[in-house]
Amino acid sequence: MPVDRTTRLLVIGVLLASALAVGGCSTSIADLTGLGAPADAPARPKEAGTFLPVHDLPPDRDEAAMKPAEQARIEKELIDARDRQVTTAAGQNPAAK
């Protein structure tokens, strides 16, 4: 009786492993048949495996991203917010007193 149980578990394991292996290939099979992409999907590039242009930088801006006065105002607001958080945290923490 234990031999039948061992054989059954072995067969189930082999079937499960083969199902997982075939399931992993499903995307490439869909690509080969041409049925994987919807009709309105953009066409795939001819060369597969090319890297994105990482070192291509955008052109320089004509004007500064932020005016110095606006940058100073935002820095002041951030410093004020940080100080408020410190005083609020100190007021709520009984060990800080």
Label the structural class. mainly alpha
Please report which band the strand proportion falls in: under 5%, 5-15%, 15-25%, 25-35%, 35-45% or over 45%.
under 5%
Count of individual beta strands: 0
Question: What is the string of SSEs from the N terminus onward?
Answer: HHH
Structural notes for this entry:
This protein is mostly helical and 97 residues long. 58% of the residues lie in helices and 0% in strands.
Keywords:
mainly alpha, flat
Question: How would you briefly describe this protein structure?
Answer:
With about 100 residues, the protein is mostly helical. It contains 3 helices and no strands.
Task: Tell me the layout of helices and strands.
Elements: H1 2-24, H2 26-33, H3 68-92
